Amino acid sequence: MQQALFHERYSWSLRIWHWLTFIIVAALIATVLVSDTFLDGQHTRFIVSTATERKGAVLTPDQTKEVVITLRQTIWKWHTYLGYVLGGLFAFRLLLEFFQTKEERFVRKFKKGFAASKQAADKKEGKHYFIVKIIYALFYILLTTIVITGLLMAFYDDDPAMSKETFHDIKEIHEKCYYILLVFLLIHLGGVIKAEFGKDKNIISRMVHGRKE
To answer: How deeply is 167 buried, as exposed, middle or buried, from its count of CB atoms within 10 A (0-12, 13-18, 19+)?
Structure first.
C-alpha cells in the first residue's frame, strides 16, 4: 500500500522545479536569518567598531550604525533578487500544471490522497498520504502569499500609491509567512529523512531520476 501511494513518478520538469525552488527558498531564508541575527543589534555594531579599531580607524556611533545598515541593505538586495527568481519559478509551476500528465497533476494526486484515506486497506497509510497532500497544498498557498506580498513590496516601496500602513501590513504578512515556511522546510526535511530510512527507501533518489518503482 505504501509503495503504491508514495512511490510516484515525477517528470523531469517538476524535478528541476523542485530542486531549484528548494535552493532559492533556502537562500531566501538564509538572508532573513543573517539579517535578523548577525547583522542586527548592538552586538553587530560592537563587532564592526572593534574590527575598525584594530585597523587604526575610529568610527563614531553613527558611522558604525551606517556601516551595519549598509550591510543589511546589501543582504536585502540579494533577498529581493532571489525573490524575483522565486516569482519566476512560481509562475513556471503554475504553467507546468497544464502540461503535466493527468497522473502527475497536483489536483489528481490530491484526489488520490482523499480516496486513499477512505478506501485504502491500510487506513493509517491512506490517511498519512492524504495529510502529506494537504501539507503540500498549504505549502502552495504559503508560496503564493509570499510571492504576491514580496512583489508588492518590491514594486511599491517608497511609492505614494501605497500608504505606509498598508506597506507595513503587507510586510508583516510576508515576514510571518517566511517563518512558517522555515517550519515547513524543517518538517519536510524531517519527513523525507524519516521516510528514506523507513518504509520509503530511495524517496530522495526518485526525486532525482524520476522513475516510479
So the answer is: middle
